[in-house]
Write a structure and sequence with these properties.
By secondary structure, the chain is mainly beta. It is 11% helix and 62% strand.
């Protein structure tokens, strides 16, 4: 009887372990998975790249914090595409002009990113990834500072985005996320119906952290 019991236990343990692994793996990010995340982004633009006409100096975007939501679909265990949208509000200042530092105004934008990604460890709790994709930065609600600047318009061109990050399965379908993006794009600003203008590379670093749920 003892031998039969030991044999039964020996057989049951691997089966139980396999069953647990199968149940656990159902929450992995694999082919067919949909991951929805919410993140907080820190946006750190490149400063001093846009020269301002007539008064000289450089246009500077303030650093900002932005909310973001995104969704990723996994076409294979390793290949996914992430679509992301956020909201950013930034302050523009003309630095080092012949008139000193001049407040230009504030502007809002809705960053839109589409990034194909390669996920390195789909069957691990710790799943790093890299991505290269498209970034669009539509600006709206430009609010001139007044004084020297009575009218303000800001636009940007589509650009590239480079991304590296990691998803960590906390429990069940819940994931923690951290990633870093580098945007390569240019922006154009005009004030007072073209009397002042500035064009240059914005090229911000975007650092994000948040949580996600796997469907």
């Amino acid at each position: 009887m003892l031998r039969v019991a030991l044999i039964g236990i020996a057989l049951a343990v691997p089966l139980a372990t396999a069953s647990a692994q199968t149940a656990d793996s159902s929450d992995n990010l694999v082919a067919g998975s949909v991951l929805v995340r919410g993140r907080i982004l820190g946006v750190i633009p490149k400063h001093g790249s846009a020269t301002i006409s007539r008064i000289g100096g450089h246009l500077q975007n303030s650093d900002s914090v932005a909310p973001e939501v995104d969704i990723s679909y996994f076409f294979t265990n390793h290949i996914a595409v992430e679509a992301e949208v956020g909201y950013e509000h930034t302050t523009l200042t003309a630095q080092g002009t012949r008139l000193g530092n001049v407040a230009i105004g504030k502007v809002s934008s809705v960053p839109i990113f589409v990034v194909p990604q390669y996920h390195l460890l789909p069957f691990s709790r710790f799943n790093p990834y890299i991505g290269i994709g498209l970034a669009i930065l539509p600006y709206f609600d430009a609010d001139p500072a007044g004084g020297l600047v009575q009218q303000l318009s800001v636009s940007s061109e589509a650009g590239a985005i480079f991304q590296i990050g990691v998803d960590y399965r906390v429990s069940g379908p819940w994931y923690a996320n951290f990633d870093v993006k580098k945007l390569i794009l240019s922006a154009h600003a005009t004030a007072n119906n073209g009397a002042l203008s500035a064009s240059g590379q914005v090229n911000p670093w975007v650092i994000g952290a948040g949580i996600g749920y796997r469907f």
